[in-house]
Amino acid sequence: MALVPYVDNPLPALSKLHNSSAQFRFANRDLHLSQDWKQLGVAAVVWDAAVVMCMYLEVGQVEVKGRQVIELGAGTGLVGIVAALLGATVTITDRQPALDFLSANVKANLPPDSQGSVVVSELTWGEGLERYPAGGFDVVLGADIVYLEDTFVPLLRTLEHLCSDSTVVLLACKIRYKRDTDFLDMLKQPFRVEEVHYDKERDIHVYKCWKLPAKRDL
Ligand SMILES: C[S@@+](CC[C@H](N)C(=O)[O-])C[C@H]1O[C@@H](n2cnc3c(N)ncnc32)[C@H](O)[C@@H]1O
């Protein structure tokens, strides 16, 4: 089942999404991610935002080593895999139809001694949030997850649920449409949002966000 419709004749710049695999080197390891655009659509290809997020994590400005990390809308799992290789304990999440493919990529790319630090789990934004500890994560990661207007409210609710006052949220975003900046405006109500990196070649913005203290009625 395709998670979203796809086209058979993509622009040349998008043709890499039709390859059956994508290779990277992060955290001193060669990673081979399987891709399957035709079967699973957006969840089964590695998006540039994920690559930029991994580069940003490698630099270490946001420390993930020893931290409890959750990745939302993980797709192939590249970001969560790299976070685990950098020493994090990671919950890698996506919608149910994406999970088998995601799990296979995680298994194929983590050495045996890192497999125990990763859990792959269903998280459809806004649903079943009670299965995840409120404010229970040090770092929340999301690469290219801001693109569907219908999901903006549940995505925001999910971020608010997962974050404590000390949680850092990192979002790597391709800003394609005005609605994407509308989400950032929505996010700025409960979170402080700072752009911390821009990858010009791939046109990807990385935002770091912290939950603002709750406003008290006077
Ligand atoms: C553009 S892909 C990005 C995948 C991956 N993060 C990357 O950058 O390569 C968007 C991801 O968000 C997931 N997604 C979309 N809507 C979702 C929802 N309502 N709840 C959870 N995940 C969702 C999709 O399944 C997909 O994996």
TrEMBL record:
Keyword Lipid biosynthesis: no
Subcellular localization(s) per the UniProt record: Cytoplasm
Keyword Membrane: yes
Gene3D superfamilies: Vaccinia Virus protein VP39
Enzymatic reactions: L-lysyl-[protein] + 3 S-adenosyl-L-methionine = N(6),N(6),N(6)-trimethyl-L-lysyl-[protein] + 3 S-adenosyl-L-homocysteine + 3 H(+)
SUPFAM superfamilies reported in the protein's UniProt record: S-adenosyl-L-methionine-dependent methyltransferases
Broad class of the protein's primary localization: cytoplasm
Assigned keywords, A-Z: Cytoplasm, Membrane, Methyltransferase, S-adenosyl-L-methionine, Transferase, Transmembrane, Transmembrane helix
Transmembrane segments: 40-57, 69-92
Alphabetized Pfam families for the sequence: Methyltransf_16
Annotated GO MF terms: methyltransferase activity
One GO BP annotation of this record: methylation
Family stated for the protein in its record: Belongs to the methyltransferase superfamily. METTL21 family.
Protein name (record): Protein N-lysine methyltransferase METTL21A
The encoding gene: METTL21A
